[in-house]
Amino acid sequence: MSGVPFLLPVDWWALGAVIALSGGAMALLLLEFLPHGPESNRAALVSLVTLLAAGASVFVVRDSRRALFDGMFVHDGITVFFTFLFCAIGILSVLLSWDYVKRTRINRTEYYALLLSSTLGMVIMAGSNDLITVFLGLELMSLALYVLVGFRRSHLESNEASLKYFLLGAFASGFLLYGIALLYGATGTTNLQKMTAVMSDSPMLENPLFVVGALLLVVGLGFKVSAVPFHMWTPDAYEGAPTSVTAFMSAGAKAAGFAALVRVGLSTLGAVRTDWVPVLSAIAILTMTVGNVTALLQNNVKRMLAYSSIAHAGYVLVAIVAGGRDGASAALFYLAVYSLMNLGAFGILTLLGRGTEERVLVSDLAGLGFRHPGLGIAMTVFMLALGGIPPTAGFMAKVYVFGVALKAGLVPLVIIGVLNSVVSVFYYLRITVAMYMEEPQAEPTHVSWAVPGALAVLAAVALTLWWGVQAHALLDQAQRSVLGGM
Amino acid sequence: MNFPLLWIIPALPLAAVGLNLLIGDRLGKRGTAWLACGAVGLAFAFAVRAVLRLAGLPEADRTIVENAYTWMRVGDFSASVAFLLDPLSAVMCLVVTGVGFLIHVYSVGYMAHDPSFRRFFLYLNLFMFAMLTLVLADNFLLMFVGWEGVGLCSYLLIGFWYERPSAAEAGKKAFVMNRIGDFGFILGMLLLFAWAGSLQYDRLFAIAPHVFVKGAAAITIATLLLFLGATGKSAQIPLYTWLPDAMEGPTPVSALIHAATMVTAGVYMVARCHPLFLLAPASLETVAVVGAATALFAATIGLAQNDIKRVLAYSTVSQLGYMFMACGVGAFTAGIFHLMTHAFFKALLFLGAGSVIHALSDEQDLRRMGGLAGKLPWTHGTMLVATLAIAGIPPLAGFFSKDEILSRAFASGHSGVWLVGLVGAALTAFYMFRLYILAFRGPSRLSHEAEHHLHESPPSMIIPLVVLAALSAVGGLVGQPMQEGGHLFERWMRPVFEGAGGEAAAPLSPRTEWTLIALSVAAAALGIYGAYRTYLVEPGLAARLRERLRAFHQAVLHKYWIDELYDALVVAPVYHLSQRLWRFWDERIVDGMVNGVAYTFEGVSALLRLFQTGFVGTYALFFTLGVLVILIELGRR
User: What range(s) does the NADH-Ubiquinone oxidoreductase (complex I) chain 5 N-terminal domain occupy (chain B) (predicted)?
Assistant: First the structure.
């Protein structure tokens, strides 16, 4: 696709998502000054249009490859894949928030402005080819999220979660920044490509500056994807945040963290694989095991899903450890599927309860399957998918990740991974059992139906099943994205 | 159209599930029953049509593959929804749809008064779909879809009466045991894919001999892992304890899933993978030994159980052991033959037991039955046929298949396995006739209440019993021993198992064969006579024997305390680990938080202090410790 086929130069289209998202976020902040009621749909609509525009703009130039801003930002297959993913996550989150924020009385324009800013940060992280840009995107995403987590201002829990997330996030950012500084000291550049070139000229496996710098970089990103032992904020933040925000961050922030890890893994860290495999393997094993085992006994579904999301980070780490293009495409595939099923599961939680009440205990789900068949089936699909049971997309994702890892010779890692996924089905099915095989003890949970939220859940169910039987479509996409990313 | 529309066979029950979900509430009980039974009946018709088409082909070409849909294909990673009909899957398919149809019809009568009638048939049809996918799949991935599906349905149906805590517990146990098995299955599957590069049966089996050296560690490990999956699904040592507990489910479920079809999936899988198992003699030997051990072990437990369904459950475990024994000695045809005859007579036994339970207003204890022969003539007659069949009395079905397993074991040089099988056969005859006598003969021990309501079951329950009794009586005739060029069943199976080790073993001389037949009939007769003496002629003898063999009786009665052992070794530690982790990470911190809320009343400053030194600090501390550990680890290298 050469020349200038679409009125504007390709560079502009490539930056379209970034421009649209920043424009949308700023427009929303300005709109706040025009009067509107507590039931206004204005902000949600503007966000929806912005996200659609962002996705469409990248779609126009999906096959182009560009390095922008002197190589700080690249527009390649990985960027395109993740931009689509983040726009999709954003759209589903807006739909889930639509009614939820009105119901819980946090329907403010800032909510959506922050959601867009955070999405912008994710897109920048995915497209960054320079550690400075990675940091920029990460901070933009995180700062918006800190506020969103504490958005239920009158809730002590929400405030506390926000504060904890913020303090620990700042702590992790410190590590990340320090790591970047050390890497710069070792190689004289922050650009990933140049850094790789320097590495191939003079391998510095023995250079402590480089080794420690790379470690701290991984730690900083590991915090965002909640890898053990940097995961401890996750259950508290997920539980305290408004459920729609939990849905958004559990999918988006994790995928963004992994996007950066995939990029670093394909370039700089790829050169020092032998050094990193044992460390990352250990982290992956810990992450899967701690996440799954702790989730077993949780009675709060939000908290249970938080531990489950930790465990899923472990599975993606297995793909990262496997490395190379296969590992990267497995990670992309897994992240897309994970985002979908997780958004769906949290999305259903946003529908539960009346007004500001939260009904997110396992016992609150009792009997729900028969009183609301559609909701019951949807939740069952998500739980089966999260547990990796065919014919859902979750199964294909796990098969692919473990298959790639086996090919890379990581047999012990795969054994532990399979064992973990076997254990995990236990707590996922507990939800299904509660829905179909238990009677509500107290007053049955009220379901606050809303068209946008139901639409989002329906879309997530459809895609989870569709990608389960049509896995090759998504898998093709993931593989081509990674090939185009090199 | 040239191909026999294989996909429609599993699709029919699935369509019934969909319709039941959509309009089931408007159909009423009658409509639901017609829908559910009709779909399975139609599936049976389609299966018969497909198998006839298959039989019409020349022997060498009896394999039909129908690619319904390409699931995914990326590089060398491909999987498709493709169905395979060959003599092996044809037998499985006919058994599943045929016996399944009869059990569906029976359930209409059995579940007539249950408020969850619709939900029951929903699950049952879903099960049929999964089971047919399992047997018709032409690759491991699709088989696994069915494998997980039947497990899920089994779990749902065991816990069908979830108001009973014991049913929920049993469902959970079945689930956990099967997950352990599945772990083996997935891992075995992934290893095969990693080493041989394909999951499609024909390609995998063609590549395997080139990739794996016979007896090499790799293929042995892979097949042992697959066998671990089989022990979970088919309730073999060490994963058998879930099946007796699974009897908490409705009786038609016990007949369909936990006797005739699902539990045989493990046997089917081993038979399907025979080219792989033949490359790993050590694995095959393991299969034979585990099968023989389970056959004997479960039979001894069956001696002392008092719940009519539990006796049958242990009997199923034991009979599945025979099937594995056959596979282990390389007599795959004999294993599948026994699978088929067992499906007939064991389904009949369970349905008959269900009829008894139904007639006695949900009484399951053999000690409170007796003398039912005259009161329930149809149930009694059909049950007697099934009992004789499982005991191995000629010319009923069980005789032919069991005898073939034993003679094959003997012929292949596994005389130890043969002896265990023979003793097991005598025990089988004993405990089955114990059941028969306690239920139908002797004086009535019924409670007054039960006596009052006693009634024969409705026709929808009796007709399936009669059909199954006919099958149990004559179903074995397709496998008469000592025929020129092998018996009918063997000739049918030949394209699949051609060249499989045990099949090619030197045939026994007629004299030896007759001796073996005489011995196994004698063993059965001995068992029957023992039961007759102990429970009918000298009622005091049972008590005296119990006294004499006190230790043995206690051990058997308590099922060798295996459940308690598993509980202490596995369940309790896992539970405690999770509890520990939770308490350590969470409760301390969460509790701290809750206390923190309380402290707000004492002052914000206290809360803030708690914030900063309490949890976030702890988190950061762990964070830093993690970094340090990695750094030190890296530094040491």
Answer: 71-121
Task: Give the phi and the psi of residue B452 in degrees, each rounded to 5.
Answer: -65, -40
Burial of B338 (0-12, 13-18, 19+ CB in 10 A): buried
Encode pLDDT of B152-191 as tens digits.
888 888 888 877 778 877 887 887 788 888 888 888 888 8
Of B152, B194, B578, the CB nearest to A407: B194
Paired tokens of A182: 């050390």
More confident residue, B317 or A276: B317
Nearest CA in chain A to B70: A470
Name the minimum distance, in Å, from the CA of B128 to any CA of chain A: 16
Nearest to B190 among A402, A422, A436 (CB): A402
Nearest CA in chain B to A411: B191
Q: Which helix (H) or strand (E) holds B79?
A: strand B77-85
A353's torsion region: left (phi>0), alpha (psi -120 to 50) or beta?
left
Instruction: Give the pLDDT of residue B72.
Output: 64
Out of A172, A212, A232, the one facing B622 most closely (by C-beta) is: A232
Q: Which residues have CB under 8 Å from A482's CB, separation 6+?
A: A77, A78, A266, A325, A328, A329, A332
| In chain B, residues 578-597 whose CB comes closer than 8 Å to chain A | 578-579, 581-582, 585-586, 589, 593, 596-597
Cis amide leading into B244 (omega within 30): no
Considering only the beta carbons, identify the residue of A279, A419, A470 that sits closest to B633: A279
B564-636: CATH topology: 1.20.5
From B626, B590, B156, B575, select the one nearest A302 (Cα to Cα).
B590
- Average pLDDT over chain A, rounded to an integer: 88
ipTM of the complex: 0.79
Q: How far is CA A312 from CA A89, A217, A360, A420, A454, in A?
A: 17, 21, 21, 10, 25
Q: Which of B404, B394, B395 is nearest to B486 (CA)?
A: B404
Domain boundaries of chain B, sorted by first residue: 7-476+485-539, 564-636
Q: What gap in Å lies between CA B56 and CA B69, rounded to an integer?
A: 26
Note whether B520 and B392 are within 8 A (CB).
yes
Name residues 121-160 of chain A within 8 A of B (Cβ): 156, 160
Calpha distance B533→A56 (Å, rounded)? 85
Q: What residues of chain B score a pLDDT lower than 50?
A: 1, 502-504, 585-587, 589-614
Q: Alpha-carbon distance B260 to B98, whole Å?
A: 11
Q: Which of B93, B86, B94, B329 is closest to B205 using CA atoms?
A: B86
Are B578 and A297 in contact (CB < 8 Å)? yes
Residue B254 is encoded by which pair of tokens?
Answer: 């016990």
User: Closest approach of chain B CAs to the CA of A404, in angstroms?
Assistant: 9
Q: Which residues contact residue B591 at a Cβ distance below 8 angstroms, ignoring those fewer than 6 apart?
A: none
pLDDT tens, B268-283? Answer: 999 999 989 988 889 9
In this complex, do A391 and B69 lie within 8 Å of one another by their Cβ atoms?
no
- Secondary structure of residue B73 in the 3-state scheme: strand
Distance CA B17, CA A195 (A): 58
Does residue A109 contact residue A31 with C-beta atoms inside 8 Å? yes
Which residues fall within 8 angstroms of residue B484, CB to CB, at 6 or more apart? none
Does A449 contact B at CB distance below 8 Å?
no
Residue that wins the pLDDT comparison between A45 and B565: A45
Long-range contact list for B20-29, CB < 8 A, 24+ apart?
B20/B118, B20/B121, B20/B122, B20/B125, B21/A373, B21/B122, B24/B118, B24/B122, B25/B118, B27/B118, B29/B112, B29/B117, B29/B118
CA A395 to chain centre: 19
**Nearest-CA neighbor of A395 among A404, A406, A384?**
A384
